Amino acid sequence: xxxLLEVSDLFKTFGTGxxxxxxxxxxxxxxxxxxxxxxxxPSGSGKSTFLTILGTLMKPTSGGYAMLGQDLVAADDxxxxxxxxxxxxxxxxxxxxxxxFTALENVVFPTAxxxxxxxxxxxxxxRELLTRMGLEARIDFPSANLSGGQKQRVAVAxxxxxxxxxxxxxxxxxxxxxxxxxxxxDLIAEINRDEGTTFLISTHDEKIAGLCRRQIVxxxxxVTG
Amino acid sequence: xxxxxxxxxxxxxxxxxxxxxxxLGVAVGVFIFIFMSALIGGLAEFILSRTVGDISHVTxxxxxxxxxxxxxxxxxxxxxxxxxxxxxxxxxxxxxxxxLIETVPGVVAVSPQITGAGFLTRGxxxxxxxxxxxxxxxxxxxxxxxxxxxxxxxRLGSGLIVLGETLxxxxxxxxxxxxxxxxxxxxxxxxxxxxxxxxxxxxIDASRVYVSLSTARTLFGLPQGVTRIEIKLADxxxxxxxxxxIRALTGLDAVPWTDGAEQLMEALNAQAQTGYFLxxxxxITIVIGVASALLLxxxxxxxxxxxxxxxxxxxGFVIFVFVTQGALVGLMGGLSGAALGYLALLPFxxxxxxxxxxxxxxxxxGSYGLAITLTxxxxxxxxxxxxxxAARVDPVTAIGQ
Lengths: 225, 401
Ligand SMILES: Nc1ncnc2c1ncn2[C@@H]1O[C@H](COP(=O)(O)OP(=O)(O)O)[C@@H](O)[C@H]1O
Ligand SMILES: [Mg+2]
Description:
Number of helices of chain A: 7
Order of helices and strands of chain B: HHEEEHEEHEEHEEHEHEHEHHHHH
Structural class of chain B: alpha+beta
Strand content of chain A: 25-35%
Order of helices and strands of chain A: EEEHEEHEHHHEHEHEE
Oligomer: heterodimer
Bound molecules: adenosine-5'-diphosphate, magnesium ion
Shape of chain A: globular
Radius of gyration of chain A: 17 Å
Number of helices of chain B: 13
Number of strands of chain A: 10
Shape of chain B: elongated
Largest sheet of chain B: 6 strands, mixed, barrel
Largest interface: A-B, 37 and 25 residues
Number of strands of chain B: 12
Strand order of the largest sheet of chain A: 6-7-8-3-9-10
C-alpha cells in the first residue's frame, strides 16, 4: 500500500540569533490513506506549525514532504494553491468561516473558487454535506449567526467539499463545549469510516485523541510516540 | 470571474453604511468634476459669445495690390510707388464665391460688404464714421443688428441709414431725419435715419453706420464686387479649419477670428488649465479615498483572506475581488455623482439664456461620460495597492492559529 504522505527529517526554525526558535527538529512521519490520527502534544510543541507545513501554507526550513507522489517542498505558490484546493481540507480552531456568507456559500467555496462560479451541482453537494452534518435547518443561515459547534460542523463540511484525500484539523474542538466537541468528532469518525478520508487532528485533549485510531505524539520537535 | 464579482459585491453590501459613505465620497468628487466642467465650459462659452459672438468668424478682405518697388541689383531701393489712397481694393468675383462659401460645412451665414470711411453731417455737426454697406435681408447675419435696435428698424434699403445710440445722442438725431453721408472718395448721399441700435460696444455705437450695399456702391464708386466678406460659423472653434477650407476652395485670403485674438485664447486657456487642475484634484481625492477605504478593508478582512487562500483561492482571485470592489465603488459613485451633478445643474439657465451676474453653468458641458470613465479607472487604479496587499496576506499569520 502506497503512503498518502511522507514527511522526512523536517526542520522548522523561526527567527534568527537571539530570537531563534527551533520548533521542528527532524520530524519524520508517514500517513496511510484512510487513517484517523490524532496529533498530541502540549501547547507550544509545534502541532500547528507541523499542520501548517502539511497543509502547504508554510515551507519547512529543511526536510522532505511529499503527498500523493508530489514533492510539495519544491512546488511554487500557484501549484500549491491548486494542490490544496483539490487534495487538502482544513478545519481551524478560530476564524473558520467567511462571516458575510451563508453556511451553504461557505461550504461550496472550494469548488466555486476553482470553477469560477457556484454551480447547481456544487450547491447540491453542499446541501448534502450540511444535511449530513445535521445542519439542514441552517443551510441558508448567515454563518456569523451560527453557534460555535455549528460553525465547526460547517467547516468540516467545507473541508470535505472537494473530496480531498486529507483533512487537517487544528484543535477543531478546542473552542467547543464537551457535547459539541463530541458531535464534531463523531461526524469526523463517520466520514472517515464511510469515505476513507484521512484525518489528522491536533489536540491536547486525551479524550478527543482517544476517539482516533492512531495517536501521534510530538515533543521536542520530533515524533515521540 | 463571476465568483470574484459575487464575493466583491457581498463585501460591499455586508457593511452598507461604510460602502454608502465611500460611494458618497466618490460621488462628491465626481460632482465637483462635473460642476467644474460645466462652469469652465460655460464660462468659456459665455466669454466667447460676449466677445466674438457678434463678430465675423472668418473674414475675407480684399488685398490691396502690393506697391511696386524698384530695386537695383545691388539691393538699393530706387523708388517705391505708394499705394493710392483713394483706390479701394475689391473682391471683384464675390458674386461667384459667395454661393461656394455657403456650401462649406459649418458656415451659417455669409455677408458680403462694402466698407469704408466717411463723414456724417447734419447742419453744422460733423462726425467721422466707418460705413458698412450690407446686403438688405442679411443685416443681422453677423452682428445681430435686429436684436440691438432700440428705435426704428434694422431693415436697410436705398436712402436709409442705421446708426448707434451714442452717435445719435452726440448729434441729437431723431428717427426720420435726413443726414448727409460723405465718403472718403468724395461722393456723398442724403439718407434718412431709419433705425437706432445699442450694441453695448462703444466703438460700434459711437462711430459705425450701416447703409445698404447699393448705397455703399454709389458712395465708394464700386459698381461691382465687395471689399469684405464676413462669414459666421456654427462652431466658433472650427474657425481655423474652416478658414483653411475656404482658402483652399476659393484661393481668397480667409482669416479666422482667432488670428489676432491670442490674448483671449490665452485667457481661455488659462481658465481651462485651472479647470483641469481642479478636476485632477477631485480625481486624486477619489483615488485616495478609495485606496484608503479598501486598504482598511483588506486589513479588517485579513483572516478571511487567509481562509480563502487556504481553501485554494489564488493570489489572482484575491486581487480580482478587491479590484472589483474598487471598480464597483467607482461605478456607483460615478453614476450617482453624475446624476447629482446633472440635477444640480438643471436650475441654471441654458447656454442661450446666460445672464450677467449669474454663474454661466452649461449643463451640456458636464463631461458626464468622461467623469464616470475617469472615476472608474481611478478607482480601479486606487484598488491595485490594497488588492496587492490582500494577495500578499500570509494565510498562516492571518488565520492566527
Ligand atoms: N511565525 C512564528 N514566528 C516565531 N515563532 C513562532 C511562529 N509560529 C510559531 N512559533 C513558535 O513555535 C512554537 C510552536 O508553536 P505552535 O506550532 O503554534 O505549537 P502548538 O500548536 O503545538 O501549540 C511556539 O513556541 C511558537 O511561539
Ligand atoms: Mg496550535
